[in-house]
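I wish you would study the pair of lines that follows with an eye to the fold:

===
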Amino acid sequence: MLCVVKEFTFDAAHNLVSYKGKCEKLHGHTYKLQVVVCGERDEEGMVIDFIELKRIVQEHVLSVLDHSYINEILQQPSAENIAEWIWNRLYPHLSTERYRLSEIRLWETPTSFVIYSK
C-alpha cells in the first residue's frame, strides 16, 4: 500500500469559549493541514492524482475555513475539533474501493499539531 500526502495552509480566527486562558480571546492562526490518502495504484500508477486531491480539499475544506471565523462553523473550535470536522468533510470524497482517507494532521502553530484518523 502507498500513501499520498498533500499539504495546505489556511488562515482563520477563533476563540475557545470553554477554555480559561489566553486562547479564550479572539486570535488567529496560519494553520497547516496535511491530508494522507492510502491505497493501491491505478492503471496510471497513481493512488490519487495530486491535482484531484487538491481540488477536493479546496472545494470541501479550504473554501469554508480560509479567512473565516471558525466559531461560526464549530461551537468549540479546538484543533482537535477542527481536525475531526475536516475528516468528516473529506472522508465521503476520499473513500473508494481503491483508496481511502487515512489521516489528517492539523498544525495550529509550527510546533503544535493534532493527528486525526479512524
In short: The chain has one domain: 2-116.
